[in-house]
Design brief:
single chain, about 180 residues, alpha+beta, Double Stranded RNA Binding Domain, Ribosomal Protein S5, domain 2, 2 domains, four-stranded antiparallel β-sheet, four-stranded mixed β-sheet, about 35% strand
Length: about 180
């Protein structure tokens, strides 16, 4: 094998691999069984969260005959279910607190102060990390199923309202004096 100028070995000819459009995180991978006349048929169910860390995130779930097939299908499903959340570029947190119930899962999201970090567990952490939120406090109540908690988190993020820009205070020169 030929050594490249930067000391790496390989025969890719200096071609670099493109970065994927969205980063992904596997929430759950389970083997599901169907009992038929001849025995059991096994399939795999993948639950995946994708995001670009710039305000887009989605959750997908799919089944396939092998693991890689189910992961690819879940990735495509998550791309179909992407939402866009307007984050404040300075604080990188959500604008206000929100509580959403989806099925038996309840998710409470509250904005964090700068430098606090992501205080969340499991599926909520995966969703807000891939969204690009830096400071947030969350609590997952009710169901602990990763798929339901992730979907509830995405629904909560989708219900956020964008904060209105503050109107600059009027300067004395721009305020007309009342007539006497």
């Amino acid at each position: 094998m030929a050594t490249k100028q930067d000391g790496r070995k390989g025969k890719s000819g200096g071609m670099r691999r493109e970065r994927p459009e969205y980063e992904q995180k596997m929430l759950d991978l389970s083997r599901v069984t169907r009992v038929v006349k001849g025995g059991r048929r096994f399939r795999f169910r993948a639950t995946l969260v994708i995001g670009n860390r710039k305000g887009k995130v989605g959750v997908g779930v799919a089944k396939g005959s092998d693991v890689s097939d189910s992961i690819q299908k879940a990735y495509n499903d998550a791309k179909k279910n992407l939402i866009t959340v307007a984050l404040d570029t300075e604080t990188m947190t959500i604008p206000h607190a929100v509580l959403v119930k989806l099925g038996a899962a309840k998710v409470l999201l509250k904005p964090g102060f700068k430098g606090q970090g992501v205080i969340a567990g499991g599926a909520v952490r995966a969703v807000v990390d891939l969204l690009g939120v830096k400071d947030i406090v969350s609590k997952s109540l009710g169901a602990s199923n990763p798929l339901n908690v992730a979907r509830a988190t995405v629904k909560a993020l989708g219900t956020l309202k964008t904060p209105k820009k503050m109107i600059a205070p009027a300067t004395p020169a721009s305020v007309a004096e009342p007539a006497k």
